[in-house]
TrEMBL record, chain A:
Residues 777-794 have a biased composition (Acidic residues). It is a peripheral membrane protein. One of its GO terms (biological process) is protein targeting to vacuole. Residues 741-759, 841-850 have a biased composition (Basic residues). GO terms for cellular component: AP-3 adaptor complex; axon cytoplasm; endosome membrane; Golgi membrane; presynaptic endosome; terminal bouton. This is AP-3 complex subunit delta. Residues 660-807 form the AP-3 complex subunit delta domain. It comes from Tursiops truncatus (Atlantic bottle-nosed dolphin). Belongs to the adaptor complexes large subunit family.
Length: 1127, 262
């Protein structure tokens, strides 16, 4: 053995340590991979040795290799070995490696549970610390569940170093094991007031993370945080708290009002830029939440904007960036105050820093108005030309489109200008946003009817010069615009000046180099054009020309038939056949134009993207039901195909004349239209009335709006958007003059002689009338679509699990799994129990007692402190019932201090909210008393053994706030026993019980009974029997009669208590019940064993059926005498 | 929350890699590479935030799941199906502003379309809640990837705290210290950030804890006990490359006294 040791250490001398490894890698630059694989082989050898130092060294090297991208999960077991080393040096290496490579999928991770527990309770704070740090990186749901209680204990460790780590790691535990949140929360809350600033900061950190995800559950902590905010001087903590308030204010506008003042003070006083910035941010959040009403906040906005301007003008690019970021938040609610700084924003557009330019772009989005849109976009267009790098240019492009299309093209007065802009954008090289431009073109053309003529002319020009677009930049996706162009030209072909020319452009051989889906659209729209041309020619009785067009198609379409794209191919061959047939008919001088254009009759309307999803399922329609009974396999295999072929073959053989087909088609279409018109579930073709934002006339009788003649109808070649800017100005000027004239006339007419105003030109947005009548058809939705936005929620959000109401009192079932003597737990991990059960048993009761006392003391202290600052805070923010955000449920119960304050006479601090009105005040009084009543009822129902007593005494108590307040003070946030009331007691045993409605089965209640052995005897063979009534029955094991008892599944050694649960089936929940019962058991002690009985009466009150969680109750002391301390 | 802390040099060589969310090793390397390229492009005199350039936040939960490309992505109705090169997707995300609804039945849901494009790209960049905040010292980049719960300026200061702590612990820290003592750097970081949350910002406290742990380690004899250390010294003597290493070594990270935000 000794020899082996010596040998080991000699071997070790030639092992590489981390430094050697690094050096080696650096010296093998050319064959690094080979060298490393060699090293890994060495490491594998080292890991096989018994010497823990060698192993640790190997693991340390592995950690380095992991950083270089090598998978080291194969060494997971060795890492655990190193973690369990007794020396801190090795342990630390092991935990570091584990934190780098362990994750939920690591299977050996479950082996670490005991080791980690041991380390957590190690006497050395650094062992504990290192374990906590490691665990924070690889905690799994299992680890979280098993260790939650240990970590919770560490939260009250004597060393702040451990405390702060334990507090921080709790967040990870919550994430992995959400059930632990409620039991651990009270202690976490205590840590907010820890004397050590590090621990405090950690607690703030954790609660902020929690609250960020589910802010509403943490509203009740606002007073505490408020106090911290006004008292703390630690900027790190302040930043967190202020950020948290930013998340809370949207839920509780009253909180915002309270915050404004201290935040403004901070803004004025602080020298730390980060704090200033966060304050501004939160003030903005507050202002957003208050955006309605409260007119006197313009000062705050001004302050924010002013401070942000200072940030933006700072030479520090970081501040500039953040200033712009915050500015964009203000913009959303108070655009006017930001618009004043347009100069600054435009200046930032020229910044050398791309991030800053992008932020400035964001701001521009909200700054545009009808008045300045053209100007801003013009500026952006010059930036587009100048921009290097496609990313930024693409961003500019999307921003231009966003800016123009925002809120249904609200700011666009001249759509011709917009179309020109879009066409200009198609000349951008290498952009990947062709589809965006295309989408805009389609959208505008479809929804703005007046623009179609112009759009079509532009699109046909685009198609004409398609070679420019397609050839050079085909790969980049700008050719997507051709998709739009082709579709627009086809669909609105009636507006085309030279349809023939466009048709030819679309049939050029070059087209076949376009992507398949564009070809498909080309083919389809060629036919639309063709139909239009036919109609035109036939009306002109130009049969010759019509035939020529047909001939052109017959010649050119085959190129699409050979397309590699299936869709294009299919459409092309279909259409080719159709055209050939038309050709035959034309040869016989049959007029065909009508029928061909019937193919494309009707209008396409835009449909909202969510429309399909929102169509409600008609009543009586079960989508899952089979329409036909599914055929059995054998049937479908041999018989069915036969039948199909019988039917089909003759049909194929008989070539029907296509006219008939077309007529048939038209007939069917007509029939379908009829049917659709009558079908209430079909999406009608006219937009639903409530969605129309203009008095858009029905589709059929849209007056084609006369386009302002000052705008050229046709721009030869590529359009230039710039000319529109000038034209627009002229137009506006003219309008203005006219309006002035009119006004002046009016005024002169009305009050001649009166002193005339010199009409200063304050041109507001409303004054500018759009050049085109814009009839933007809104997207259609099914009529009875539900206006829900639920589909935006992500069901897989991991933080959803943490959406837990923390104000609800803790149920007994929610305690963290602690290892103790319990039937349910023993089965889980027997070996774990051996280690700790002994000490737990002895320690537990004492500790708990101490803790409770301590907590109570602290609570009292806290409350006293809180009352001063927070009560008026809360008072001034609680009452008005009109505010939308409700107080957190259970609010009054949770915060005893607040409860007391609200019920207490409203003397002192009501000053400022007196103006909230009489009714609010009444409300204030009503609410708590109602609450109180309910609570009392519950209390009465559950607690009382003798119903009459509390009933008699109840009324005076209700009026009197004092006892409640005191009672509230005695309330205990961690009530493991508190909801239990005494059932029966004798010298051997004490029974307390609690009734809970069952969540799973509504006709059942569960009675949890805690049996405590008060004697020195060993109690066994316990059996519970209850005399069933009509209404309530004890659920007994199957096969036993109504007179049999139910055995209690445990035995009780002296001094031990345990809990058993019994299920009762209830018939009616409106009758209260008293059930007589007996507990029989054998008490065994040194003298021998005796058979004992204890009778009891079990009370089911009506409320016990209703409440699913135990009522939050007074801390019931163990002896029955103090059961009603204030009665 | 801090999602990741990366330290790499001017050539993109990783010096410290700390992810607070599980990524398989190859993805980690990819993230480092892409982050490096994003950061490298930026001058020293422009702002230290990278928005849009963000770590992918897709949860790789469960049992060693890998990033799998969504094979259904091209099934969506819509336009261009040209495959995207990872490079072109690596840039800035183009999420449309809220309230802008997509558009036409022919086009399908453009949002979805864009979404799937981003998702499918090999790029690890994307997601709206994340920011890269970095600082560049001499030869090293310190990059923190954080979500919106962290204060930007606070993180900048935190980086400064971290680097100053390194400077104190290594006495004029230089890249070589980080190269050869990656483990120690990790231990220092562990006293600053734990599980993605800021643990301590007070430098004196951090240094005190580190020194206490180093003392503890020393009292245990350290990892390489005396004989082994002697051997390694002997080995060093034989190494002809030794002087070269030393030459590189004088590139200290000069920790400037930066303006404090906090």
């Amino acid at each position: 053995m000794a020899l082996k040791m010596v040998k080991g250490s000699i071997d070790r001398m030639f092992d590489k340590n981390l430094q050697d490894l690094v050096r080696g890698i650096r010296n093998h630059k050319e064959d690094e991979a080979k060298y490393i694989s060699q090293c890994i082989d060495e490491i594998k050898q080292e890991l096989k040795q018994d010497n823990i130092a060698v192993k640790a060294n190997a693991v340390c090297k592995l950690t380095y290799l992991q950083m270089l991208g090598y998978d080291i999960s194969w060494a997971a077991f060795n890492i655990i070995e190193v973690m369990s080393a007794s020396k801190f040096t090795f342990k630390r290496i092991g935990y570091l490696a584990a934190s780098q490579c362990f994750h939920e999928g690591t299977d050996v991770i479950m082996l670490t549970t005991n080791q980690i527990r041991k380390d957590l309770s190690s006497p050395s704070q650094y062992d504990t610390g290192v374990a906590l740090t490691g665990l924070s990186c690889f905690v799994t749901p299992d680890l979280a569940r098993d260790l939650a209680n240990d970590i919770m204990t560490l939260m009250s460790h004597t060393k702040p170093y451990i405390r702060k780590k334990a507090v921080l790691i709790m967040y990870k535990v919550f994430l992995k094991y959400p059930e632990s949140l409620r039991p651990a929360f009270p202690r976490l809350k205590e840590k907010l007031e820890d004397p050590d600033p590090g621990v405090q900061s950690a607690a703030v950190n954790v609660i902020c993370e929690l609250a960020r995800r589910n802010p509403k559950n943490y509203l009740s902590l606002a007073p505490l945080f408020f106090k911290l905010m006004t008292s703390s001087t630690n900027n790190w903590v302040l930043i967190k708290i202020i950020k948290l308030f930013g998340a809370l204010t949207p839920l509780e506008p009253r909180l915002g009002k309270k915050l404004i003042e201290p935040l403004t003070n901070l803004i004025h006083s602080t020298s730390a830029m980060s704090l200033l910035y966060e304050c501004v941010n939160t003030v903005i959040a507050v202002l957003i939440s208050l955006s309605s009403g409260m007119p006197n906040h313009s000062a705050s906005i001004q302050l924010c904007v002013q401070k942000l301007r200072i940030l933006i003008e700072d030479s520090d690019q970081n501040l500039k960036y953040l200033g712009l970021l915050a500015m964009s938040k203000i913009l959303r609610t108070h655009p006017k105050s930001v618009q004043a700084h347009k100069d600054l924003v435009l200046q930032c557009l020229d910044d050398k820093d791309e991030s800053i330019r992008l932020r400035a772009l964001d701001l521009l989005y909200g700054m545009v108005s009808k008045k300045n849109l053209m100007e801003i976009v013009k500026k952006l267009m010059t930036h587009v030309d100048k921009a290097e790098g496609t990313t930024y240019r693409d961003e500019l492009l999307t921003k231009i489109i966003d800016i123009c299309s925002q809120s249904n093209y609200q700011h666009i007065t001249n759509f011709e200008w917009y179309i020109s802009i879009l066409v200009e954008l198609t000349r951008l090289e290498g952009t990947r946003h062709g589809h965006l431009i295309a989408a805009q073109m389609l959208d505008v053309a479809i929804r703005v009817k007046a623009i179609r003529r112009f759009a079509v002319s532009q699109m046909s020009a685009l198609l004409d010069s398609a070679h420019l677009v397609a050839s050079s930049t085909q790969r980049s996706g700008i050719c997507e615009v051709l998709y739009a162009a082709a579709w627009i030209c086809g669909e609105f072909s009636e507006h085309l000046q030279e349809p023939q020319q466009t048709l030819e452009a679309m049939l050029r051989p070059k087209v076949t180099t376009l992507p398949g889906h564009i070809q498909a659209v080309y083919v389809q729209n060629v036919v639309k054009l063709y139909a239009a041309i036919l109609q035109q020619k036939e009306q002109a009785a130009d049969a010759q020309a019509a035939q020529e067009v047909t001939q052109l198609l017959v010649e050119r379409l085959p190129q699409f038939v050979q397309s590699a794209d299936l869709e294009a191919q299919e459409r092309a061959s279909c259409i080719l056949q159709l055209v050939k047939h038309v050709q035959k008919l034309q040869a016989r001088d049959v007029p065909v134009a009508e029928e061909v254009s019937a193919l494309f009759a009707g209008e396409l309307n835009p449909v909202a993207p969510k429309a399909q999803k929102k169509v409600p399922v008609p009543e009586g329609l079960d989508l899952d039901a089979w329409i036909n009974e599914p055929l059995s396999d054998s049937e479908s295999e041999d018989e069915k195909p036969k039948a199909i072929f019988h039917d089909e073959e003759p049909r194929h053989a008989k070539q029907r004349p296509p006219e008939a087909d077309e007529q048939e088609l038209a007939r069917r279409r007509e029939a379908r239209k009829q049917e659709q018109a009558n079908n209430p579930f079909y999406i009608k073709s006219s937009p639903s009335p409530q969605k129309r934002y203009q008095d858009a006339p029905g589709v059929d009788h849209i007056p084609v709006v006369q386009i302002d003649l000052s705008v050229p109808l046709k721009v030869p070649g590529m359009p230039m958007s710039d000319q529109y800017v000038k034209l627009e100005e002229e137009r506006r000027h003219r309008q203005r003059l006219e309006k002035d004239k009119r006004k002046r006339k009016k005024r002169e007419r009305e009050r001649r002689g009166a002193r005339r105003h010199t009409s200063l030109h304050t041109e507001s947005d409303e004054d500018i009338t759009p050049a085109q009548r814009v009839d933007i058809v809104t997207e259609e939705m099914p009529e009875n679509a539900l206006p829900s936005d639920e589909d935006d929620k992500d069901p897989n959000d991991p933080y959803r699990a943490l959406d837990i109401d923390l104000d609800k009192p803790l149920a007994d079932s929610e305690k963290l799994p602690v290892q103790k003597h319990r039937d349910t737990e023993t089965s889980k991990s027997p070996e774990r129990q051996d280690v700790t059960v002994v000490e737990k048993k002895s320690k537990k009761p004492k500790k708990k007692e101490k803790k409770q006392k301590e907590k109570e003391r602290e609570k009292k202290k806290k409350k006293e402190a809180e009352k001063g600052v927070d009560l008026d805070f809360w008072l001034s923010t609680t009452p008005p019932a009109a505010t939308p955000a409700p107080l957190p449920p259970g609010f009054l119960q949770e915060e005893p201090g607040v409860n007391a304050a609200v019920t207490a006479p409203k003397e002192e601090p009501r000053g400022e909210e007196q103006d909230a009105g009489e009714d609010a005040e009444q409300d204030l009084e009503k609410k708590p008393s109602e609450q109180k009543k309910k609570k009392h009822k519950k209390d009465k129902g559950e607690r009382s053994k003798d119903k009459k007593r509390p009933k008699k005494r109840a009324p005076p108590r209700e009026g009197d706030a004092e006892p409640v307040q005191n009672g509230a003070l005695r309330e205990e946030p961690l009530p493991p026993m508190s909801s239990y009331s005494l059932l029966a007691e004798n010298s051997y045993i004490k029974m307390t019980y609690d009734v809970q409605g069952s969540l799973q089965k509504d006709s059942q209640v569960t009675v949890s009974m805690v049996l405590e052995n008060q004697s020195s005897s060993f109690l066994k063979n316990m059996e519970l029997n209850v005399l069933d009534s009509l209404n309530a029955r004890l659920a007994r094991p199957e096969g036993s009669s109504v007179h049999d008892g139910v055995p209690v599944p445990f035995q009780l050694p002296p001094g031990i208590s345990n809990e058993a649960q019994f299920v009762f089936t209830i018939q009616s929940i409106v009758t209260a019940q008293k059930l007589k019962g007996t507990l029989s058991f054998i008490a065994k002690n040194d003298e021998g064993s005796t058979h004992e009985k204890l009778d009891f009466k079990l009370h089911f009150t009506c409320t016990s059926y209703l409440v699913t969680t135990p009522c939050y109750r007074l801390d019931v002391p163990t002896d029955g005498s103090a059961l009603f301390p204030y009665l | 929350m801090i999602q990741a802390i990366l330290v790499f040099n001017n050539h993109g060589k990783p010096r410290l890699v700390r992810f607070y969310q599980r990524f398989p090793e190859e993805i980690q390397q990819q993230i480092i590479r892409e982050t490096f390229h994003l950061v490298l492009k930026r001058d020293d005199n422009i702002c230290n935030f990278l928005e849009g350039g963000r770590l992918r936040t897709r949860r790789l939960s469960g049992h060693g799941s890998r990033a799998q490309p969504l094979c259904r992505m091209w099934d969506l109705p819509g336009l261009g199906q040209e495959p995207m090169s990872p490079a072109s997707a690596g840039g800035l995300s183009t999420t449309a502003p809220p309230g802008k609804t997509p558009i036409h039945p022919l086009l399908g849901d453009l949002h979805h379309y864009c979404f799937f494009r981003q998702y499918s790209s090999v790029s690890l960049i994307g997601g709206s809640d994340y920011k890269l905040i970095y600082r560049h010292y001499a030869t090293l980049y310190f990059v923190f990837c954080v979500d919106s719960s962290e204060s930007e300026l606070g993180i900048l200061d935190l980086i400064q705290v971290f680097v100053e702590t390194l400077d104190k612990c290594f006495e004029n820290v230089c890249e070589l210290d980080l190269i050869f003592h990656m483990d120690k750097v990790h231990y220092i970081l562990q006293e600053v950030v734990m599980g993605g949350m800021v643990l301590e910002t007070n430098m004196n406290e951090i240094v005190a804890q580190i020194e206490a742990q180093n003392r503890l380690e020393k009292s245990e004899g350290g990892l390489s006990a005396a004989p082994a250390r002697a051997v390694s010294a002997v080995k060093n003597i034989n190494l002809p490359e030794m002087p070269r290493n030393i030459n590189i070594g004088d590139l200290n990270i000069k920790v400037p006294n930066l303006s404090q935000f906090v």
